[in-house]
Design brief:
The protein has helices spanning 3-10, 16-27, 35-48, 62-69, 83-94, 134-141, 171-189; strands at residues 52-56, 75-80, 102-106, 122-127, 145-153, 193-198, 204-209. Helix 6 (134-141) links the parallel strand 4 and strand 5 (145-153). The protein is 39% helix and 20% strand. The protein has one domain (14-209): Rossmann fold. It contains seven helices and seven strands, in the order αααβαβαββαβαββ. It is α/β, with parallel strands linked by helices. The radius of gyration is 17 Å and the shape is globular. One of its GO terms (molecular function) is methyltransferase activity.
Length: 210
């Protein structure tokens, strides 16, 4: 078998509903989690037995719905700042079989009033929003993660930009790349978390709260 064969063998069998979402994301240039990264996240959540997830960055609701579909008793709170994407997420969630598992908020996650969340604490936090704000998202929402819970941070590769020498990164992207580097280094040095980087999808950083 080739590496592609193995990947296909163990990848999640997605329904037509999710293939439609993926086509919509491609056609409308909406960044959603890559299939291999999404499969890995769903599997890690399963191993963790995470029943509650807080997501920062809903986009069109793809990852929230994939997380819900993979575990019928899982509840997801998800926050999206962009109005158009929020409306798209709302439509996809309401047309799915998993609307009862998801609460969706239209808000800037850095200003969002935490008392609106249905739950006071979560088994997992998934960060997939503005890359230059990861540290701020982490600082605000990590306290809501239970002891032994896990924080998943996607797009650490930043489509390859974070792997380039800074001189080769477009100037308009350098601040974002620098902040992402600083975020990863801070988590590596944070003794309250056991962190591991997985080179799957666009780069997934997994941090277990001690």
């Amino acid at each position: 078998m080739t590496s592609t064969d193995f990947q296909q063998l163990f990848s999640s069998q997605r329904t037509a509903f999710f293939h439609d979402m993926e086509r919509f994301a491609t056609e409308h240039h909406v960044p959603i989690m890559r299939p291999d990264g999404m499969d890995a996240l769903v599997h890690l959540l399963h191993l963790q037995n995470a029943e509650t997830v807080l997501e920062v960055g809903s986009a069109i609701g793809y990852s929230a719905l994939r997380m819900a579909a993979s575990y019928p008793s899982r509840f997801i709170s998800t926050i999206e700042r962009d109005e158009d994407r929020y409306k798209q997420a709302e439509q996809f969630i309401q047309s799915s079989d998993h609307s009862h598992q998801i609460e969706l908020f239209h808000a800037d996650a850095l200003d969002f009033p935490l008392e609106k969340l249905k739950l006071a604490s979560y088994d997992a936090l998934f960060i997939d929003a503005a890359k230059g704000q990861y540290q701020l998202f982490f600082d605000r929402y990590a306290p809501l993660v239970k002891s032994g819970g896990v924080i998943y941070s996607d797009n650490i590769y930043l489509n390859g930009l974070s792997q380039l020498p800074m001189s080769e990164v477009p100037r308009r992207k350098r601040t974002m790349v620098r902040k992402l580097h600083e975020f990863a280094e801070a988590l590596h040095d944070n003794s309250e978390y056991d962190s591991q980087f997985y080179p799957i999808g666009d780069g997934l950083l997994v941090s277990k709260k001690r």
